[in-house]
Write a structure and sequence with these properties.
This protein is α+β, with helices and mostly antiparallel strands. It is built from two helices and two strands. Strand 1 and strand 2 form a beta hairpin.
């Protein structure tokens, strides 16, 4: 499935709505409507990353890679 900028914006708005206290949001991607609840926020964030990568690839640009250093020294 080819994602669009509108799909990405719909998912981002759903994440904002859930973070703002809404208990249930609906996201339409193409002709499919999916409902997400508060507990589905990680799924929605993963979908956002997947759509963002697909849109960036379709536009010929790569998503920047981010590395997180994990340490135990308290730096």
């Amino acid at each position: 499935m080819a994602y669009t900028e509108q799909d990405l914006e719909a998912v981002r708005q759903a994440i904002i709505d859930l973070a703002s206290g809404n208990r249930l949001v609906r996201v339409q991607i193409g002709d499919q409507i999916t409902q997400y609840a508060e507990v589905d926020l990680p799924k929605l964030e993963a979908l956002e990353a997947r759509i963002e990568s697909a849109v960036a690839a379709a536009q010929g640009r790569r998503r920047p890679r981010v590395f997180r250093a994990v340490h135990r020294k308290g730096l």
